[in-house]
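Q: I'm writing a short methods note and want an example of a predicted protein-small molecule complex. Could you take the sequence and the SMILES for flavin mononucleotide and return the bound structure as tokens? Please keep the output block clean; save any remarks for afterwards.
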Amino acid sequence: MKSSIIFSSLTGNTKKVADEVLKIMPEGTKIYDLKDLNHSLDDELLILGYWVDKANPNKEMYQFMESLKGKKIITFGTLGAYPDSSHAKEVKENTVKILEGNNEVLGTFLCQGKINPKITEMFMKSGGENNVHTMTPERLKRHEDAAKHPNEEDFSNARSFVKDIINSL
Ligand SMILES: Cc1cc2nc3c(=O)[nH]c(=O)nc-3n(C[C@H](O)[C@H](O)[C@H](O)COP(=O)(O)O)c2cc1C
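A: Understood, no commentary inside the block.
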């Protein structure tokens, strides 16, 4: 099955996961940074990587997802929150909502990714917009935990996740 990986990454976390997923894909699979993609793709299967922004795929990937029709799709994303949190569950649900109807979503994968230290610093000082991100010890711990990701275990989990789906097709 002809397939491509397309990712969007601001600080490199999602790109790292994309490069790992490529390792288990059949030879000839293409990988694109969404910002450099300037032609349409006739692949049957797309593997889409995004970073999480306000509980959704980042804007550029969100818009790309909205443009897709008739594809089989696997998604992976990196986020600051824990992948087993209710926030991560919401992210997956939001992602499926964008794609389903026009496409077949085969699976959604998330792992933590280090948060830009400038963002952590900003929240330490100001609490962010409407103070919703005021830094509590719990939040700081989450930022510190995220700083260790994506790690080798995340890479292995991402590779297995995609491989199992592809083997089942
Ligand atoms: C503007 C902004 C918004 C973010 N919003 C969220 C969010 O809603 N939930 C979350 O868990 N992480 C959020 N994050 C953390 C990023 O999703 C996370 O650090 C991700 O791994 C960055 O990926 P990248 O290195 O590929 O750009 C946000 C980061 C930024 C910079």
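A: Remarks, as requested: The chain has a mean pLDDT of 94. The chain has two domains: 3-114+151-168, 115-148.
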